[in-house]
Design a protein that fits this description.
Length: about 325
């Protein structure tokens, strides 16, 4: 559906409410979510509910319209045509539709095992290997997840309220770094973002490492020679930006596009199958509203990579900065 421009958002919101509510309820809903009063005051939704909504949305910025669209979707019946189009517009141009339920990250050991403590609310409880991952359990607001918010959560979780702020940050970063192991590419990316943090402070989005995007409770050995249903369960890094924009950053070592067998001089045979699996997963992520950025393993070994990574994060910030 293309970019979610203000005009497209106004039209899609109007159509979704037209489909979901009677004229009096549309008027009440618009007032309830804080839209400006009708102008003229005797303007009503009876003649055209969609046009009425669009008039009351006049002057709203794109970020404001995105937030309002999410409120509208909460009121719409799933599967309705106009609501589906609104959700598709948000996913295609303004992030991922749907609320974040579980953020499981910084995995640094055996796969954790979970049970549903409350299946209706998607409430998970780790019953094994919980010490090898972190689970962010606070609601995600419209502004995404910043270092400051992650640090506040870590202070409470780790019982560090008695420590100076700098020690808390160092403690958190040490824990996140553990999940990178000895992977030089991921450490290059992490180091670049640390430079950014030192320059701009804790109100920038947090760079979250080793995040479970998919979760298969079974281990690879269970499938033998068969392909598991989920080929890639963890992503290298995730940024949770305002307006539900989710940015995946991947470092592609040889395991992404080559066979495991190492030949003479460290070479490997290219694996078209692995490359195709990676591309298929990227397409699926993008269709769900994620943005995916990849760095090749060789690229991160080239001279000038520090400056290139710094420039990448600057460009990324400009690309997704909320409209003023």
């Amino acid at each position: 559906m293309g970019t979610a421009t203000p005009r497209k958002l106004r039209e899609a919101i109007g159509q979704a409410l037209r489909e979901a509510m009677s004229a009096p309820k549309v008027e009440q809903f618009c007032t309830g979510i804080g839209l400006a009063p009708p102008n003229p005051p005797d303007d009503v939704a009876m003649t055209s509910k969609a046009a009425y909504v669009e008039r009351r949305l006049g002057g709203k910025t794109r970020p404001e319209l995105v937030r309002l669209a999410l409120q509208v979707l909460d009121e719409c019946e799933e599967g309705k045509e106009a609501a589906t189009k609104l959700a598709d517009l948000l996913a295609g141009g303004s992030g991922v539709a749907g609320e974040m339920k579980n953020l499981i990250f910084a995995a640094d050991g055996p796969k954790p095992e979970f049970v549903f403590r409350d299946a209706l609310n998607n409430d998970l409880k780790a019953i094994k290997n919980a010490e090898y991952c972190l689970i962010y359990d606070r609601p995600l607001g419209p502004d995404g997840l910043t270092w400051r918010q992650l640090g506040d959560w870590w202070t409470e979780r780790a019982g560090l309220a008695h420590l100076p702020e700098k020690q808390v940050w160092n403690n958190l970063h040490d824990r996140l770094e553990r999940s990178l192991g000895d992977n030089p590419g991921e450490r290059q990316i992490s180091d670049a973002y640390k430079r950014r943090y030192r320059r701009l402070g804790p109100d920038i989005p947090a760079l979250i490492p080793q995040v479970y995007l998919h979760y298969d409770p079974y281990h690879q050995a269970r499938y033998g020679t068969s392909a598991p249903p989920l080929t890639r369960q963890r992503m290298d890094f995730l940024l949770l930006l305002p307006n539900r924009i989710r940015v995946v950053i991947e470092w592609d070592g040889a395991q992404h596009y080559a066979d495991d067998t190492v030949l003479a001089h460290g070479r490997r045979h290219a694996s078209p199958r692995r490359y195709a699996e990676m591309m298929a997963e990227d397409r699926a992520l993008r269709l769900r509203g994620y943005e995916v950025y990849r760095f090749g393993g060789h690229e991160l070994a080239e001279p000038g990579i520090e400056q290139r990574l710094d420039q990448f994060f600057d460009d990324l910030d400009r690309r997704y900065a909320p409209a003023a």
